[in-house]
Amino acid sequence: MSQALPDSTISTDETMRRHFWRNYLAHSIEGGLASGGMAFIAADTIAPPLIKSLGGPTWLISLTPVLFTLGIMIPPLFTAHKLERLQQFKPLVLGTALLGRLLFLIAGLILLLISPQGAGLAIVVVVGAQFLAGLCNGTTLSAWQGLVAKTVPHDRLSSMWAARYTISTLLGILAGGVVAVVLAKNPGLSGFGMLYLIAFGFGIGSAIAFSFIYEPKLPVSNVETRSLVENLRRVPGLVRNDRRLSNYILSSALMNGSMIMIPFMSIHSLQVTGMSASFLGLLVSAQMVGAIGGNVIAGLFGNRNGGIAPMFIGRVLFIVTCLGAILAHAQWQVLAVFVLYGMSSSCNLIGSSTMNITLSPSHDRTTYLSIISAVTIPCMLIASALSTVVWNGTQSFSVLGIAALGSVALSTYFLLKIGSGRAASAD
Question: What is the DSSP letter of 275?
Fold first, then answer.
């Protein structure tokens, strides 16, 4: 019987295909459990009302939905020059992921143990856990994206992302019911502490699934060794010379304008319906039901047409979400808005996850990915600042919705320009 050839003697594409189903399923389950667990402490639905109930300032409420993402986006530009030299990504990614999960365990225990009068400490714990967990994941974000790129063929990326998010949305529907029951029976900090512990449990499950990913041992690539300063100096030229990249960056930057409205959407929903905090569970479930539909749409269009199609659909859906959120007052109307929001979010997420990898040439993948991530940071901060200023100045959710709508509409314009832009030189 002939012996199978080692990975180093066959092409990258053949190596991917050899271990395809193992890696496809492992990536899908890992991501589904991780994102599904985060639904129990959803930064855009659960966290803002929690911060508000604890007496947190408006600027912090505005910042809460993006804290985890900001933590993820900060490190890559400073670590890309190191990570692109690695031949094995998996051990480092798994280690930082476990550290990030541990923070939710600590946060949950603290929220369970502190007294109801410890509002200040509770705010620090919630904010700190979200941001620091993001930093842990962001430190090796480019390595994780590189791992995905070397283990899943490009023509299967969109369906893989869709599978991940379908699992997470199914868990999110479950999360909605659990959130409603937990907060109804355990109002206050103890209930939120329980939700953080549940998120930790799912995070450990995702780490176990991640350990099953097979990372092929490919030949050592001839990657030019660069210092941090040298790599940063290359960034303006890379953006200037690749029009597809520059248009994508502009589109992604303006899409962050959605965060002008999102921090106050669940708060506004509770106000207009007159419901208690337990209604947040139904909002999470509605959002996840919509996300399932978005996953199906994005998976079908993404495999066939790449990342631009699902991103376009997602942006159009978000514009409709803005209008609906402004007009909705009845409970069923608010739930319908969150269904649309879920569809929009999943389409944008799957589309951008696909585009991030397919747009980046293999010889500069970690640097491209870090550029895309880094641009998000100031845009999210600007959106949060605008959200704070508008809310403090007008107390009008309608103004927030219109501002978000305008930014996303402009984002859609630059998205459509990507297809006609000039790409970077071939690998």
Answer: -
